[in-house]
Amino acid sequence: xxxxxxxxxxxxxxxxxxxxxxxxxxxxxxxxxxxxxxxxxxxxxxxxxxxxxxxxxxxxxxxxxxxxxxxxxxxxxxxxxxxxxxxxxxxxxxxxxxxxxxxxxxxxxxxxxxxxxxxxxxxxxxxxxxxxxxxxxxxxxxxxxxxxxxxxxxxxxxxxxxxxxxxxxxxxxxxxxxxxxxxxxxxxxxxxxxxxxxxxxxxxxxxxxxxxxxxxxxxxxxxxxxxxxxxxxxxxxxxxxxxxxxxxxxxxxxxxxxxxxxxxxxxxxxxxxxxxxxxxxxxxxxxxxxxxxxxxxxxxxxxxxxxxxxxxxxxxxxxxxxxxxxxxxxxxxxxxxxxxxxxxxxxxxxxxxxxxxxxxxxxxxxxxxxxxxxxxxxxxxxxxxxxxxxxxxxxxxxxxxxxxxxxxxxxxxxxxxxxxxxxxxxxxxxxxxxxxxxxxxxxxxxxxxxxxxxx
Length: 455
Fold this sequence. Notes:
The protein is mainly α.
């Protein structure tokens, strides 16, 4: 009896230890998930460096998946938590198990919860290991929850899975959703062009932007570009930057010189790579709403590499200075200085004088009538270099990928939200394709779907 009692106590201790270990794995994975999400657009961290956080996170989720049924209590609790990070971690671990019960619970979670938690579960579904995709896709298509349809579209677009509008329950309710339109540009769905064309004509500006890029990816040029040249809206400027020919620069410079000067117009001019835009972009650096994007555009064209240190006050902890204190005069008659808390960050220069001096010294290296990317004639290899560069902001990398598809009809399964290991595999897969295109396409010229555009 004593032995049996000792054995029972030991079993309970082991069970308690494992439960605590499961909870710790889940907590750590949830924290790392949220940290990774917050760092995706952090200018201080390169896309490659984020891989360290991902590897740590995946070690925890893999450990939970390997525990299987013994970790079910912790995983179910994490999946139902209000914390988006823990819900993501639990969902990903359960999907890695690749069994009906665990995957079904993840899909069921899409029916309830906050927008943040449901979004986190959808992103976990998108990250599903390849061997488990077929199961979760079937469960999504069988579900009647609106979020399940969104997840099905996101998964299809992210993994380039077949997507047919008839596959989706109540598809008519989502044909104008941004995720649906985005997915149609990345899959081979029947009737995709018709749905996207309708959205380009009749939808809100945000959806027209998504629809225009999707149509350009599918090789639809005339209707998109003609509409973009007629309609002075940010989405139209971006479409011209991604697919416009030599005449697009003149139109965008007209728009940039007017009252409707936007960040999208600046970035679009950078994508076109025409040196006629350099002067206007430098001049606009004094305008705060577009300064940062104008600097990105200048770097896209010139590759000057001009950076500067700037002080960024803390949003939450910076001392609030009221008018009275700010105007206080000390005994010497000088305005009193108030210390502020914050950090110093290195960013692309937005000081016009720096750019004017650099351009004066270097403009002779840039020929007219050709386009440039980071100081070199525009080419598939330059776009691949943008994808690989640790200095490229995520927005630049995402646009470089779209350019490869739209300009050169060069597509592999790639998204900037992918885990770093997957991105590195995708870039390796791009290499032979880019080598072939470099031998077929003249540098510095305007292309669409692999064919040169003429004026």
